Amino acid sequence: MNILFIGDIVGKPGRLAVQKVLPKLKKLKKIDLVIANVENLAHGLGITQKTWVEMKNAGVDVGTSGDHVFNKTDVNPILNDPDSRLIRPANAFEDMPGNGYLNLVIKKKRVLVINLLGQVFITKEAKSPFDAADLLLSNNSGDIIFVDMHAEATSEKVAIGWHLDGRATAVVGSHTHVPTSDTRILPGGTAYVSDAGMCGLRDGIIGVDRAVIMPRFLTGEKQPHEIAEHGPAVFNSVLIEINSKNKASKIIRLDKEFEV
C-alpha cells in the first residue's frame, strides 16, 4: 500500500498547488490513500466547507488538523459528520466537535489514522500526546496505523516517533511548514519524518505574505493575516510504502515547485 501525506495546506495558493499536483501524482505513484493536514485551508487559518470540499475533489481522502482547526466555526458541522473524514487532535479540544482518530478500510486493510497535538511551544491547551496515543492504541486496532504529530518542537516529534516505533506504521510531523530531510525507517519498522512541510507560497514567511509578517519582527506591529493569491508555490509531501506485513518499507520526500 502507498500512503501520501501532504504537509499543511496554506490558503488559496496551497489549495491550487494540491489541485495542480495531486491528481497526476496519485496515478504516477499508484497512491492508495492521501492524508493531508488541512488546518490552514481557509486563508491560512481554519477550515470551511468550501475549502474542504475543494481538497476532497482534488483527491484528499483524510484531513488532519491542529491548533487552528476551530478558527472558523464552519468546521463544526464537518467534524460532526462521520463521513467527512476530517479529524481534530485527539488530546485537545475534548469539549468540541469531532474525533481525534479515524478508522477506514483501504484495499481490505484496516487503517487507523490518529491526530495528535504537541504541548511544547503550543498555545492551545493539550494533554500528553504520549498518553493519548497509548490510550487510542489500547482501544483501537488496525493493520496500518498512521499518526500525524502536529507540533512545534522537533524534539517532541522525535520522541513520539521513538515512543510509537514498532506500534505505528508511520509517524509524520506537521505544523512548522518547513520540510525536514530526516526521513527514515526506525528500528521497529515505523516510518518517520519530523515535518512534511507545506503547500503554499514559497516566497512568503511559512506561507503568509512576508509584507505583513516582517513588521512583527522589526517594530512589533501586528498586521492582519494576509496571503497573496499568486506566485511561486511549493508542494511538500512524503510517500510511505507499506509491505504485505503492514510495515513501512520506504519513506521518501515528494516535493515540487511551480507558479500558481
How would you describe what is shown here?
The protein has 260 residues and is α/β, with parallel strands linked by helices. The protein has one domain: 4-Layer Sandwich (Purple Acid Phosphatase, chain A, domain 2), CATH 3.60.21.10. 25% of the residues lie in helices and 28% in strands. It contains six helices and 13 strands. Strands 1, 2, 3, 4, 11, 12 and 13 form a seven-stranded mixed β-sheet that branches. The longest helix is centred in the N-terminal third of the chain and has 18 residues. The radius of gyration is 17 Å and the shape is globular. Keywords: Metal-binding. It comes from Candidatus Kerfeldbacteria bacterium CG08_land_8_20_14_0_20_43_14. GO terms for molecular function: 2',3'-cyclic-nucleotide 3'-phosphodiesterase activity; metal ion binding. This is TIGR00282 family metallophosphoesterase. It holds the Pfam family YmdB.
Quick structural overview:
The protein has 6 helices and 13 strands. By secondary structure, it is α/β, with parallel strands linked by helices.
Structural descriptors:
260 residues, alpha/beta, Purple Acid Phosphatase, chain A, domain 2, seven-stranded mixed beta sheet, 13 strands
The strand count comes to: 13
Mean pLDDT: 97
What structural category do the secondary elements indicate?
A: alpha/beta
Share of β-strand residues: 25-35%
- The total number of structural domains is 1
Shape: globular
What distance lies between the first and last C-alpha atoms, to the nearest angstrom?
31 Å
Biggest sheet record: 7 strands, mixed
Instruction: Assign the CATH architecture.
Output: 4-Layer Sandwich
The CATH homologous superfamily corresponds to Metallo-dependent phosphatases
* Poorly predicted segments: none
Specify the helix fraction band: 25-40%
Number of helices: 6
List the secondary-structure elements in sequence, H or E: EEHEHEHEEHEHEEEEHEE
Overall radius of gyration: 17 Å
The CATH first-level class comes to: Alpha Beta
Could you tell me the CATH topology label.
Purple Acid Phosphatase, chain A, domain 2
GO molecular function: 2',3'-cyclic-nucleotide 3'-phosphodiesterase activity; metal ion binding
Protein name: TIGR00282 family metallophosphoesterase
Pfam family, one: YmdB
Keywords: Metal-binding
